[in-house]
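Quick start: read one record
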Amino acid sequence: MNCHTYPGADCDTDHQLVVATLKVRLAKRQRQHSIPPRNLEKLKEDKAVQFAAEVTNRFTALEAAQNEVTLEDLRKDTKTVLLDVARETIGSVKSQKKKKWISDETYAAIREKRDTTGKDKKRYQELKAEVQRKLRVDKQLQLEGICMELEAANSKGNSRKQQTQKEIPGSSSR
């Protein structure tokens, strides 16, 4: 956009100092095709047994078909088998912006609050406070549900039952 040269630099050379202002437009990086997230909730049901049996069957068929396999071919075959069986047995989850722990009643209040934005300031403030109260109640209910689930697992002696940070609302690493 703009360029200046400054002759007479204090060095023994015939070069001149150049100062320029550039405007660069970088192309957007295209994302690679990602694998859709799988519906892991179905693995808690009878689908887990079906999934395990199908994977075992496919691997035994694959093992019988190939004698000498490179490591890269083995990796590709394993990935293909696991993804195909997962797609067939448990399916994928549709992308969901809606958080599981927020109730439908709270979402209705959130929509109403959005509709009143910029129209009635007093009503908006009331709805904002109401939404905050409902969100706190929903979060508390979710946390109580997780605690009850963990206590039930603990009473059965299942010490491997753990919750991830993503499942607990409001918990994030800050």
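Helices lie at 47-65, 71-89, 104-115, 121-155.
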